[in-house]
Design the sequence.
């Protein structure tokens, strides 16, 4: 029950209590806070349009003993969760506690943990006073990212000052952390808008960021995220009538706490240009042909003939002259063969100026868009699993730094035009199919597969195998599992059989 005049609040409170009494509801006299300027509510102290943490709640957290098991850690996180709105970068501060809940086994509590816990307690002691939300006034959400964390301050203007209503923070997902900063802020804004709605109740919300969120959503975001994720972000940030997206290059939440909000200045940050630059493995990598240097065409092929799959690659010139070609293991897909073709072209062009044409959108996308991101994230997909043929992709990215100058240009596949580029692409396709008929070349795949010496009698004397394992160890079964033999008595295994091989060992 709230009001501006004591007399009115008293009368309204009495009417409410009488009404509750008629309904048979009992009111605890000990808990009753009747017509006071300062009241305790859900562990918070409310006074004069503000709220702050109850000192008794803070004291209870400060007296917690070091956790001995995961139950104690969850208890600590639960108590701290009630205070998260008062703690700047809460998600970042308690990350070390969340990490202790990952995996099995007992937890450990060392000196580093004790120091971090002291930092949390120090932050609690100095927790600021927050303003109560005023649903009649617009809310301002200031968003940025810090140490893999979405950080924001929800504030409202009181007179000439901006007062904080809540501190918001969320740990970014592993996939999001590998994006360019400008796109990470889009995810951060969406996460914090969802959190802030618990306090704004549909009130007008203005989102401020040093990045051009709306421009990124319509321009570059679709290249980096799935359709489902993009739709979610657009729904949260662009289709809600109560949300306005703004750009503020002078973002500094501390300025809003002390009321020294600077005037808005034109944004000089080019998000789209920055995203394009951050996506490249090398800054001078071009999507358009170079005016000088070599002009090469590459292609990878994988097809089935007479029930057997054949794979190969080729690097050629415009007139069809083969620079290098070769067969690949039969289980290699067309995508993997294309990656090998581009990798070998870059390795052969070390120290040269070269323009390489490819009709593979996948290979083109790896070097221009996804490759650096995948490597930064450890070649881990959104579901936590490893990207296929990781070793080959890493080899491609390393080879990209070899040429003096390089351009990787995409050209449509299977065209019948008469331009030199279209003719060169047809030659590459033809040479790759011809090469697929041969025997895999040791040089091209030795860095991408596992080499295992054939076991001799002496090697196996002390080993014990089941009948099924003995059957798999025979030469016939190894060859059925895509092993490839060379005269030097080494077998080169495809990635599909590595896990089985380790099991046998």
Sequence:
């Amino acid at each position: 029950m709230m009001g501006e005049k004591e007399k009115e609040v008293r009368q309204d409170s009495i009417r409410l209590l009488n009404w509750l009494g008629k309904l048979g509801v009992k009111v605890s006299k000990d808990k009753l806070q009747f017509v006071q300027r300062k009241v305790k509510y859900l562990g918070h102290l409310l006074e004069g349009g503000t709220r702050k943490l109850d000192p008794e709640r803070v004291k209870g957290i400060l007296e917690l003993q070091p956790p001995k098991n995961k139950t104690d850690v969850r208890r600590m996180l639960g108590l701290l969760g009630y205070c998260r709105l008062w703690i700047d970068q809460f998600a970042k501060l308690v990350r070390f506690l969340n990490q202790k809940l990952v995996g099995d086994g007992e937890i450990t509590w060392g000196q580093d943990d004790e120091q971090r816990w002291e930092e949390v307690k120090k932050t609690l002691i100095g927790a600021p006073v927050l303003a109560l939300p005023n649903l009649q006034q617009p809310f301002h959400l200031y968003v940025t990212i810090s140490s893999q964390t979405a950080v924001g301050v929800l504030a409202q203007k009181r007179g000439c000052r901006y007062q904080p209503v809540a501190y918001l923070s969320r740990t970014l997902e592993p996939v999001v952390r590998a994006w360019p900063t400008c796109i990470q802020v889009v995810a951060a804004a969406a996460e914090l808008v969802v959190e802030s709605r618990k306090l704004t109740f549909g009130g007008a919300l203005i989102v401020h960021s040093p990045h051009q969120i709306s421009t990124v959503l319509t321009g570059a975001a679709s290249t980096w995220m799935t359709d489902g994720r993009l739709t979610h972000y657009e729904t949260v940030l662009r289709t809600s009538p109560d949300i306005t997206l703004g750009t503020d290059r002078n973002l500094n939440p501390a300025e809003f706490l002390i009321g020294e909000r600077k005037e808005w200045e034109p944004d000089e940050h080019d998000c789209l240009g920055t995203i394009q630059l951050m996506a490249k493995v090398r800054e001078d990598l071009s999507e358009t042909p170079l005016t000088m240097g070599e002009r090469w065409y590459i292609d990878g092929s994988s097809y089935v003939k007479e029930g057997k799959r054949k794979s190969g690659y080729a690097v050629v010139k415009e007139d069809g002259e083969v620079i290098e070609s070769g067969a690949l293991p039969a289980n290699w897909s067309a995508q993997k063969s294309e990656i090998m073709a581009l990798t070998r072209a870059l390795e052969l062009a070390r120290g040269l100026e070269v323009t390489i044409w490819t009709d593979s959108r996948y290979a083109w996308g790896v070097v221009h868009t996804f490759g650096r991101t995948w490597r930064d994230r450890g070649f881990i997909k959104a579901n936590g699993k490893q990207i296929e043929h990781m070793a080959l992709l890493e080899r491609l990215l390393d080879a990209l730094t070899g040429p003096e100058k390089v351009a990787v240009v995409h050209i449509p596949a299977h065209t019948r035009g008469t331009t030199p580029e279209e003719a060169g692409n047809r030659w590459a396709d033809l040479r790759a199919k011809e090469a697929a008929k041969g025997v895999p070349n040791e040089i091209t795949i030795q860095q991408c597969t596992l080499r295992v010496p054939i076991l001799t009698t002496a090697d196996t004397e002390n080993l014990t195998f089941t009948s099924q394992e003995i059957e798999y160890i025979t030469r016939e079964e190894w060859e059925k599992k895509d092993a490839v033999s060379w005269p030097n008595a080494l077998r080169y295994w495809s990635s599909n059989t590595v896990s089985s091989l380790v099991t046998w060992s």
Q: What stands out?
A: Residues 181-200 form the longest helix (20 residues). The chain is about 40% helix and 20% strand. The chain has a mean pLDDT of 80. The longest strand covers residues 294-305.
